[in-house]
Design goal:
The protein is α/β, with parallel strands linked by helices and about 625 residues long. It binds adenosine-5'-diphosphate (ADP) and zinc ion. Adenosine-5'-diphosphate binds next to helix 3.
Length: about 625
């Protein structure tokens, strides 16, 4: 048997980065991870979405194959994406294949034969495949000949019941270290919480592995949370202002809302498609493919959409309804800007979101203790939404990470840092609101919803107010100086603080809680952001629905833009021919860099990020031709 721990030099790994992937530098901790694994170490890799996990196993796999150590097995639960991942490796000139249920038995047999010949560098397979008897026998044969080089277990949080996508098949992966002792293993995930992490180490027997924990900051994502009014219209204005022609994901809570919002966008000329569990499987698959393969598609979806979407040029992720917790919010927003270029995470949030999320928890059949946990997580997200300080600091603090020197740090890339909101003291308004709820309850023994309470407070003689004799309450009209918008903000914050409860069983009526008292006594201050009205819509420059807008990720002059557009059109053709998403051929950033340089010779193409040796060989002539013709 050949020793597994052949020293692989740092130069080798860097040479592969440049030659195969066309990148000049490692990102963050990639280099340390890659060298450790290439030299036979076990590793646990925690890195945010978009951090660059794939290279962390692909480069060691290539280095070890070149050193005669054989094939690397990549365990991945995402059958739908294996095709594109393997396609991307082929484009880079790396021998790769996948084994999953989409292959015919003849095709699977061919792949197995290539495996046995040691003719593959990376083999992707689903966990149930990796642990079946037939496949294990293949691995035995490779192992005995010293040709089993590495196991990379991607999306490793699937092993944990604490993770959000628990897959029982992942449990069976313990067999790998028992049966193939000494073959290095690495587990990779973007899920950071401690419980899941401990579970991964134990379940996969990786206690002795070196852990590489990256910062979870995504500096290129700009976080913005706005007050929800007419969500769909606000979204439309946001897209028109910031993201005309860009690819994006819009998350909504329900199927109906997905359909409605998608329609609103389409009517306004945005290339939007709906995605939810109620759609026919084929339609859903088709929409996902179009999102991955076409330029500038906006996917309007429930959270069913997204796991494993590794499209790098998603320019924005918008939430029209609030997610359940910060983990969900961070994972979903993390799908924006994987390519490292500027991207937006935008959320519209309102009173109804708070009420809905609380109700879902209250009505769930789970035990009280578990519900308490869910409420705590929801509160943290509400805190983020109501925050008047840096959003990024709060987000990272939630994951146990401190930014800069901690308190007072300003990231300068979130709404609160860029436009510090005016803050007003809502303590008086809050007390008046609570007193009103108290008086109503006392006088009639009944509870009422938010609208009615605010009407009384603002002194509005609606039919309902008169009918219940509520004009006689001592609090009637004592909040006349506040606008309804302000009071909504106050109420939202009171609910977020737990000082008002919304009774879902009784028409969402408002109730006092044990925390109300401290606000009433003035012990708890209520700080509110001044509602800023949304900037007016920029006049749309769109000539007609669907007309293309050329927008490059870097500044280009007129001619540059023309070249960029021509290169994109050429790329779309190649991608179609190869049945792959366009970004697998070249990223937008690579095309933009080519457009800027306007290369005339092969030499001029040297050093552009994203052009490896194989791509240079395959595409240089075409690229030069496209550039020369524009
Ligand atoms: P993750 O799996 O961690 O979400 P990926 O492996 O998909 O992230 O990488 C995200 C994007 O970043 C990919 O498009 C990849 O090509 C790119 N990338 C990764 N490492 C580098 C690097 N060192 N230099 C430039 N681009 C990189
Ligand atoms: Zn900030």
């Amino acid at each position: 048997m050949i020793a597994h721990n052949t020293a692989t030099s740092s130069q080798t790994c860097h040479a592969i980065l440049e030659e195969v992937f066309g990148y000049a530098q490692f990102r963050g901790p990639q280099q340390a991870i890659i060298e450790h694994v290439a030299n036979g170490g076990d590793a646990l890799v925690l890195m945010p979405t978009g951090g660059g996990k794939s290279l962390c196993y692909q480069i060691p796999a290539i280095a070890r194959q070149r050193a005669g150590l054989g094939i690397s097995i990549v365990v991945s639960p995402l059958i739908a994406l294996m095709h594109d991942q393997v396609g991307a490796l082929h484009e880079a000139g790396v021998s790769a294949a996948f084994l999953n249920s989409t292959l015919s038995s003849e095709e699977a047999y061919q792949v197995e034969q290539r495996m046995l010949r040691g003719d593959i560098t990376l083999l992707y397979a689903a966990p149930e495949r990796v642990t079946n008897a037939r496949f294990l026998a293949l691995l035995d044969s490779l192992f005995e000949r010293g040709l089993l080089s590495l196991f990379a277990i991607d999306e490793a949080h699937c092993v944990s019941q604490w993770g959000h996508d628990f897959r029982p098949e992942y449990r069976a992966l313990t067999v790998l270290h028992e049966r193939f002792a000494g073959v290095p293993r690495m587990a990779l995930t973007a899920t950071a919480d401690d419980l899941t992490q401990a579970d991964i180490l134990e379940r996969l027997q990786l206690q002795a592995a070196r852990a590489f924990v990256s910062s979870f900051d995504r500096p290129n994502i700009r976080y913005t949370i706005v007050e929800k009014r007419e969500a769909a219209q606000q979204l439309l204005r946001f897209i028109e202002r910031e993201h005309e022609g860009d690819a994006g994901i819009v998350y909504c809570q329900s199927r109906k809302r997905v359909e409605d919002v998608a329609q609103t966008l389409v009517d306004a000329g945005v290339r939007a498609l709906p995605y939810h569990a109620g759609l026919d499987n084929r339609v859903r698959q088709d929409h996902q493919n179009r999102f991955l393969r076409e330029d500038g598609v906006v996917m309007v979806a429930t959270i069913a959409f997204g796991m494993g979407i590794d499209k790098p040029d998603v320019r924005f992720v918008a939430h029209l309804d609030m997610p359940k917790n910060i983990e969900g919010y961070y994972q979903e927003t993390g799908r924006a800007g994987r390519d490292g270029l500027p991207a937006y995470a935008w959320m519209a949030y309102g009173l109804q979101d708070v009420v809905n999320q609380r109700r879902m928890i209250d009505e769930s059949p789970a035990g009280e203790e578990f519900k308490q946990g869910l409420r705590g997580k929801l509160d943290a997200l509400l805190g983020l939404a109501e925050a008047t300080d840096c959003r990024r600091v709060r987000l990272l603090a939630y994951f146990g990470e401190q930014l800069g020197d901690g308190a007072g740090y300003r990231c300068q890339n979130c709404d609160n840092c860029l436009n510090p909101p005016a803050v007003w003291d809502g303590t008086d308004a809050a007390r008046k609101l609570l007193s009103t709820i108290y008086r109503i309850q006392q006088s009639s023994g009944m509870s009422f919803g938010a609208g009615h309470v605010m009407d009384i407070l603002r002194g509005k003689t609606t039919e309902k107010v008169t009918q219940h004799g509520h004009t006689a309450l001592s609090t009637f009209g004592i909040g006349a100086e506040f606008s309804e918008l302000q009071l909504r903000g106050v109420l939202r914050q009171l609910i977020a603080l737990g000082a008002v409860a919304v009774d879902a069983q009784a028409f969402n009526t408002l109730q006092l809680t044990e925390h109300s008292r401290s606000v009433l006594r003035g012990e708890l201050k209520v700080q509110l952001r001044e509602s800023v009205s949304a900037p007016a819509s920029r006049k749309s420059k769109r000539a007609g629905a669907g007309s293309a807008v050329i927008k490059a990720p870097i500044a280009l002059d007129g001619e540059g833009l023309v070249r960029y557009a021509a290169l994109k059109a050429w790329r779309a053709e190649v991608a179609r021919e190869h049945n792959l998403p366009a970004y697998v051929i070249f990223h937008d950033a690579t095309l933009a860099a080519i457009a800027k340089r306007a290369p005339q010779t092969l030499d001029d193409l040297q050093g552009i990020s994203g052009i490896g040796a194989k791509k240079l060989e395959a595409y240089a002539q075409s690229v030069l031709r496209v550039v020369s013709l524009t």
